[in-house]
Design brief:
It is a single chain. By secondary structure, the chain is mainly alpha-helical. Helix content is 43%, strand content 0%. It has a domain of 37 residues. It has 2 helices and no strands. The longest helix is centred in the N-terminal third of the chain and has 34 residues. The chain is flat. The two termini are 66 Å apart.
């Protein structure tokens, strides 16, 4: 029984050590991300908005004027569904 107890204690020590390393690495990444001084080259460019111009002359082309709409689909004339759709056939 003593062997099992010491093995469990060793396993628990390793797990605690691994958890501590993961936490320290996470804190190091957060520290580096928040407190690092950005260089002048890495600064994002200022937002500039371009003026949007829509060319409505495209709608007056002959190709678009010659288009024909689809034919109308007749309404469904058969009986719709079953009285209880959850019953088997």
């Amino acid at each position: 029984m003593a062997i099992t107890f010491t093995q469990e204690k060793k396993k628990q020590r390793y797990l605690i050590l691994i958890l501590a390393v993961i936490i320290l690495a996470g804190l190091g990444i957060v520290w580096w991300g928040f407190f690092s001084v950005p260089s002048e080259e890495a600064a994002p460019p200022a937002l500039t908005f371009k003026k949007v111009q829509i060319n409505f002359d495209v709608l007056n082309r002959e190709d678009l004027k010659n288009l024909v709409p689809f034919e109308r689909v007749p309404p469904f004339e058969a009986e719709v569904g079953r009285e209880n759709p959850f019953l088997r056939y």
